[in-house]
From TrEMBL:
NCBIfam families per UniProt: rSAM_fuse_unch
Record-linked PROSITE patterns: RADICAL_SAM
Domain of life (superkingdom): Bacteria
SMART domains per the UniProt record, alphabetical: Elp3 (SM00729)
UniProt GO molecular function: catalytic activity; iron-sulfur cluster binding
Pfam hit, one: Radical_SAM_N2
SUPFAM superfamilies: Radical SAM enzymes (SSF102114)
Domain (Radical SAM core) ranges: 260-502
Native source organism of the sequence: Nonomuraea aridisoli
Protein name listed in UniProt: B12-binding domain-containing radical SAM protein
Length: 636
């Protein structure tokens, strides 16, 4: 039976809301398939506003892959702003997809991609608007399977009660595998109902179904164990790793937004994974090992993406783009190819070295030399050793001096506050560093027309990193240090006016910390917040710390216990049954090394130090050089 579009009902509401265009769909390269041509149908959600969600690569890639699959259909849905939410509730309009404006509840799967935990309340809004029961136990045979992915899904325990399933790691292959399991189950006449479908998914070991695992607690609140409650469900669920990125050159048809979005460019992911070993970086740890896309595929994807989309900006994405083994050839090849055209290139790299500036120079051939960003992350040498960010003060000063003397006028420096073992002087060290940067820049250029901006965020310990056991700094400490740094920067007569300062207060980090390392008991807090009106928690104008604290108190949850408490080695962590490939003993050892200032090298260039990923996952580091060239082009 075809499912009707709800657009005629939505249309009447659009004149009354902000930015109505974000709800109308019809973007270049969007896909609307005939409902009956598919037997498996996915609604893909990015749980934030359209302007943030549309450029998300994960959703865009799965959208294309699933729509290319015969008998499969995928549409997108985003979080609606509170103004439209109120009207939809008043008029009984359900959560819809922007492609064909079909009700989300009609789909087989609602796949939600979480880059951050602060999107959890938006998922509840979407479920509620869709008419899908919030709790997985209350869902019936006609409700979609609610499936989470993305980096936050590496600890989905705080939202376990709301999820039917979660997937860890790269989505390309597993989304197809899940589709085939659903197709087969439907073709067989849905034997055993929803429960059997979830069982079939869980048995594979590649899909986590929270309801098939029971959590037992000690009297003091720590977890005693997490164990499967069905015989055929594996004890641990593993992440997925795509080993040959060249086989998956997506997006091939980039979505071109109709409304304004945070990025309006064509992005090519040039590699996945990072082995630099920054201890605070969850993305680096959970996406190991490094797998590079070849130079020929990058060249072909850029060419094709521009032709398909008409974008005039190309971004080369990864966790540390200057680290691609053939980046110099990629940069030169692309800069040559697009010199004199209106296509601009960007490389979001924050590496602190002269090579990064060479690359930035290549990429700015078509544009102005405005700003360069470097990320020393820690304000003192000691702090940088703790986090394994091997950048000396000398490296930084030399690098920024080169940048200023080559015509760059603005340098941005990224730092974190609240890192493990941090003292006040580590944060105040940032002021000294920034002053030295300006001093060196003035000397190198003979000009006072240079600027440096210090950007600093609160550190949140994340699962599957060496800091997963660390006590998070309380927000009072973070705020005190951030203010002391502000005073030290602003109070300086000689350099203060040349240094910009951007920071956020420490309270949102505490909520993020609660959600990142929480267990199933945090679900009640999320629900309380949502029932109290919590929406768009990633937006400072919508976020309310007081609402979260009141919700925690109502749920009987001690926020400090989850955030500022340091864990012991043998404490069962809520995500221990979810396998990111990293060896727990190695993570612990690295945490101990951090405290004593020990460093680890990048295993891309040095021998393996046994973090566990490659042997556990059957994967390996894949880097060039391939010796191939960007040109001539191959066809994707
Ligand atoms: S197993 Fe070895 S080679 Fe593989 S990511 Fe870990 S340290 Fe690097």
């Amino acid at each position: 039976m075809p499912v009707e579009s709800i657009f005629h009902r939505l249309e009447a509401l659009l004149p009354k809301v902000q930015k109505p265009i974000q709800y109308v769909g019809g973007e270049l390269n969007s896909t609307v398939k005939d409902w009956d041509s598919a037997d498996v149908r996915w609604a893909l959600m990015y749980p934030d506003a359209y302007e943030v969600g549309l450029p998300n690569q994960g959703v865009a890639i799965l959208y294309e892959i699933l729509n290319e699959l015969p008998g499969t259909l995928a549409e997108r849905t985003y979080a609606v702003w509170p103004d439209l939410e109120a009207l939809m509730r008043a008029e009984g309009v359900p959560q819809f997809t922007v492609d064909a404006h079909r009700p989300v509840r009609a789909f087989d799967v609602l796949g939600v991609s979480f880059s951050t935990e602060l999107g959890y309340t938006n998922m509840l809004t979407a479920l509620d608007l869709a008419g899908i029961p919030l709790l997985a136990v209350d869902r019936g045979e006609d409700d979609p399977i609610v499936l989470a992915g993305g980096h936050a899904a590496f600890n989905p325990e705080p939202i376990a009660d709301f999820l039917d399933a979660a997937v860890l790691g790269d989505g390309e292959q597993i989304s197809i595998a899940i589709t085939e399991v659903i197709r087969e189950w439907k073709a067989e006449g849905r034997p055993g109902g929803r429960d059997e479908l979830l069982m079939r998914l869980a048995e594979s070991g590649g899909v986590y179904v929270p309801k098939f695992y029971d959590v037992e607690y000690h009297d003091d609140g720590r977890i005693k164990r997490v164990a499967p409650n069905r015989p055929d469900v594996p004890w641990r669920v593993h992440k997925h790793t795509v080993m040959d990125l060249d086989e998956w050159p997506y997006p091939k048809k980039p979505l071109v937004p109709l409304a304004e979005t945070v990025h309006e460019r064509f992005s090519v992911e040039i590699f996945r994974g990072c082995t630099r070993g920054c201890r605070f970086c969850q993305a680096g740890m959970i996406t190991r090992p490094v797998r590079e896309r070849s130079i020929t595929t990058i060249g072909a994807m850029v060419d094709n993406g521009i032709k398909q989309s008409g974008f005039n900006e190309v971004g080369l994405l990864s966790l540390s783009s200057a680290d691609h083994s053939e980046i110099a050839d990629v940069a030169k090849g692309l800069a040559d190819r697009y010199e004199g055209t209106n296509t601009s290139l960007s490389l979001p790299s924050t590496r602190v070295d002269a090579f990064n500036i060479d690359l930035a120079n290549e990429f700015s051939r078509n544009g102005r030399r405005s700003g360069l960003t470097f990320a020393p992350e820690g304000g003192s040498e000691r702090m940088r050793k703790v986090i394994n960010k091997m950048v000396t003060e000398e490296d930084l000063i030399r690098t920024v001096t080169t940048a200023y003397s080559q015509g760059w006028r603005q340098v941005k420096l990224y730092f974190m506050c609240g890192l493990p073992t941090e003292q006040d002087e580590d944060v105040l060290g940032i002021a000294d560093l920034a002053k030295k940067v300006i001093k060196a820049g003035r000397e190198a250029t003979g000009s006072r027309d240079i600027r440096c901006t210090v950007s600093i965020g609160g550190f949140v310990p994340k699962p599957h990193t060496p800091f997963q056991w660390a006590g998070q700094a309380d927000h009072e400490t973070v705020d005190r240090r951030l203010k002391a740094l502000r005073d030290a920067l602003r109070g300086d007569k000689e350099y203060g006016r040349a240094i910009g300062y951007r920071y956020h207060d420490g309270k949102p980090s505490i909520v993020e910390g609660l959600l990142s390392r929480g267990d199933r008991r945090i679900g009640a807090v999320i629900r309380n917040v949502w029932e109290d009106g919590g929406r768009f928690d990633g937006w400072s104008e919508h976020f309310s710390y007081e609402r979260w604290m009141a919700a925690a108190e109502k749920a009987g949850v001690d926020v400090d216990w989850y955030t500022t408490r340091e864990r012991e080695e043998n404490e069962v962590l809520p995500w221990d049954h979810l396998d990111a490939g990293l060896d727990r003993e190695w993570l612990w050892q690295d945490w101990q090394e951090a405290v004593s200032g020990g460093e680890v090298e990048d295993c891309r260039w040095t021998p393996c130090y046994d973090c566990g990923v490659c042997p556990t996952m059957g994967t390996e580091i894949q880097i060039g050089p391939t010796g191939r060239k960007l040109l001539p082009l191959t066809v994707v």
